[in-house]
Design goal:
single chain; mainly alpha; 2 strands
Length: 360
């Protein structure tokens, strides 16, 4: 919305600042953080009033978690409200990529919200049908990927780029719709599995969002893309503003989610944030790099897959408990140790992922 103030720069030269993505990204970070800081306590109060007993705690999980009973969930509403309001304020709303990413983020957030609602009202860990949930996720992701292929350059928009390789592209054709949808759905559910300890998911999400905001900005700038010899994707630079809004909203949420958490993110936030990261990666043509920068999320998801497969095939468990952050708790690590060490892993993986921009 504020972007259009730049049209008045002929009369007020200072308004030309609103043309710059970097300026609006900085504004988005500060605005989103302030929004969540100001409205967070009210949202927490309302959720606590509505939910009563809060999010159900697993009886078979670490015993230290039982003390968290009564903590409200659906904290993702704080992040989503800050993200959406800030994006509408600072982003160029004429850019189709902004609306595509918001569509995925809100759509996945709605799925998570309904799942959280069922868990809270029924006081059970079982939400609604997993097959139905995945079907809706794939429908949303598929529609978003189709829109991305229509907005992008024909041929290039359906191609897969590889890190460390300068000019190689693999055109997947119509198969790219399925591939892109798997990336988005996989990212959403991987972040969802990571959200199990106070502050564990939100910081890696912020790290990944900051990294992909940087990548989107460079990929959407012809000069920088040519210098780094990465593929130029016209229009994706505006997604840096969306990623900035995620970073700011995440900072605000962390204030309330830091141990001991006043509120949990819930599926409302984790599904939405994962879907958002996946959509940005597909739009910016850095899907494989997402697996590197979001390697912590991948590890959490793989640990669950391995645990389930091993138990069904052999009757034995590979980990003491899955996802893997609970395994380390069972080994004797305290919750803060697990969280901070996983944050360190997320930072290292982000640096490795960003290095792929130059190592070609």
């Amino acid at each position: 919305m504020l972007y259009f103030l730049a049209d008045l720069s002929w009369a007020f030269p200072g308004l030309n600042l609103f043309r710059y993505i970097t300026f609006r990204t900085g504004g988005a970070i500060m605005t989103a953080a302030l929004f969540v800081f100001l409205f967070g306590p009210w949202i927490i109060g309302q959720l606590r009033l509505k939910q009563g007993k809060g999010q159900p705690i697993r009886s078979d999980g670490p015993q230290t978690h039982l003390a968290k009973r009564g903590t409200p969930t659906m904290g993702g509403l704080m992040i989503l409200s800050g993200l959406v309001a800030t994006t509408l304020l600072w982003a160029n709303l004429a850019n189709p990529y902004v609306w595509i990413v918001l569509f995925v983020t809100i759509g996945f957030g709605a799925i998570g919200f309904y799942d959280d609602y069922l868990k809270v009202t029924k006081q059970t860990h079982a939400g609604y049908s997993g097959k139905m949930r995945l079907a809706i996720e794939f429908a949303i992701a598929g529609a978003a990927v189709y829109a991305i292929t229509r907005v992008g350059q024909p041929g290039f928009s359906t191609s897969l780029a590889f890190p460390f390789l300068k000019n190689f592209l693999l055109d997947l054709g119509w198969f790219f719709l399925l591939f892109g949808a798997v990336v988005i759905v996989g990212a959403g559910n991987a972040v969802n599995l990571t959200d199990g300890l106070d502050g564990l998911a939100i910081v890696p999400v912020m790290i990944a969002a900051a990294s992909f905001g940087f990548i989107a900005y460079l990929s959407g700038n012809a000069v920088f893309a040519d210098y780094l010899q990465i593929h130029f994707t016209l229009g994706t630079g505006e997604l840096a503003v969306v990623c900035g809004a995620v970073l700011g909203a995440g900072l605000g949420f962390l204030w309330f989610n830091a141990p001991p958490a006043q509120i949990f993110m819930g599926d409302t936030g984790s599904l939405a944030m994962g879907g958002m990261l996946g959509a940005v990666a597909v739009a910016a043509k850095h899907e494989i790099v997402l697996a590197i920068i979001g390697g912590l999320f991948v590890l959490e998801a793989v640990s669950v897959i391995v645990q389930v497969a091993s138990f069904k095939l052999t009757g034995k468990r590979v980990f003491r408990m899955a996802p893997i952050h609970h395994h380390f708790e069972q080994l004797g690590w305290s919750e803060p140790q697990v969280v901070v060490r996983f944050w360190i892993v997320a930072v290292v993986l982000a640096l490795v992922g960003l290095a792929t921009l130059k190592l070609r």
